């Protein structure tokens, strides 16, 4: 069996309950192919377009230790110049991590900064003073840092040419 939405045939292996209409302003030129539509519908993640910004994923701290939700992990420093950025905590499968306060990330507009413009964000299972990002006590997680309207992009080398926050594991339960 196959499903058709707006004259687009979706292959048999894509479950019909995850197929949605992704028209942009009704313009037929911007209909995503059915595989992309199904992937976005299933995951709920809309990728950042290259012209809009850039994303960085951290699965480990600066010492190479995997990010552990039972530990206190501190992100500190500054970010590259960007009009707006977000930091979101996900499971290794790319799902939001469940926690009692329903906080899954921060934006550049809501964090508390130090007088020099730098910040400290603590990802930990228990409440911390300041910018606290709850981990829900999960075994492993990843942090996704997205920059919007920034000069950082594919032309930037892989090194630390641009200022990025450090990630350090402080203590574990």
Description:
The chain is mostly beta strands. The protein folds into two domains: 41 residues, no CATH class; 120 residues, Domain of unknown function DUF1214, C-terminal domain (Jelly Rolls, Sandwich). It has one helix and ten strands. A hairpin with a 2-residue loop joins strand 1 and strand 2. The chain is globular, with a radius of gyration of 19 Å. The N terminus is likely disordered.
Q: What's the topology here?
A:
Elements: E1 3-5, E2 8-10, H1 34-43, E3 53-58, E4 71-77, E5 82-90, E6 105-107, E7 119-124, E8 131-134, E9 142-150, E10 166-172
Parallel strand pairs: 7-8
Antiparallel strand pairs: 1-2, 3-9, 4-7, 4-10, 5-6, 5-9
Count of helical stretches: 1
CA-based shape: globular
Cα Rg: 19 Å
CATH class of the largest domain: Mainly Beta
Average pLDDT level: 77
Fourth CATH level, the homologous superfamily of the largest domain: Domain of unknown function DUF1214, C-terminal domain
Number of domains: 2
* Helix percentage range: under 10%
CATH topology of the largest domain: Jelly Rolls
Numbering strands along the chain, what is their spatial order in the largest sheet?
A: 3-9-5-6
Element order, helices and strands?
A: EEHEEEEEEEE
| Beta strand % | 25-35%
What is the level-2 CATH architecture name of the largest domain? Answer: Sandwich
């Amino acid at each position: 069996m196959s499903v058709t939405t707006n004259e687009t045939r979706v292959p048999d292996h894509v479950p019909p309950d995850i197929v949605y209409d992704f028209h942009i302003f009704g313009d037929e030129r911007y209909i995503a192919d059915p595989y992309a539509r199904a992937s976005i519908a299933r995951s709920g993640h809309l990728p950042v377009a290259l012209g809009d910004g850039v994303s960085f994923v951290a699965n480990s701290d600066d010492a190479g230790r995997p990010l552990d939700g039972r530990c206190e992990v501190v992100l500190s420093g500054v970010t590259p110049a960007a009009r707006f950025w977000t930091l979101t905590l996900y499971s290794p499968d790319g799902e939001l991590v469940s926690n009692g306060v329903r906080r899954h990330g921060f934006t550049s507009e809501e964090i508390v900064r130090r007088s020099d413009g730098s910040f400290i964000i603590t990802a930990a299972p228990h409440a911390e003073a300041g910018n606290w990002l709850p981990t829900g006590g999960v075994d492993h997680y990843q942090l996704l840092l997205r920059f919007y309207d920034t000069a950082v992009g594919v032309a930037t080398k892989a090194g630390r040419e641009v200022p990025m926050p450090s990630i350090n594991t402080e203590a574990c339960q």
